[in-house]
Amino acid sequence: MDYTYLDIAKMIDHSLLNPTLTDRQLEEGCQLALQYDTASVCILPYSLRRCAEILRGSRVKASTTIGFPHGGHATAVKVAEALQALADGGEELDMVVNISKVLSGDWDYVRRDIAAVIEPTHKAGQKVKVIFENCYLNDEQKIRLCRICSELNADWVKTSTGYGTGGATLEDLTLMRKHAAPRVQVKAAGGIRDLDALLAVRAIGVTRSGATKTREMLDECKRRLGTI
Question: Where are the domains of the chain?
Answer without folding.
Answer: 5-225
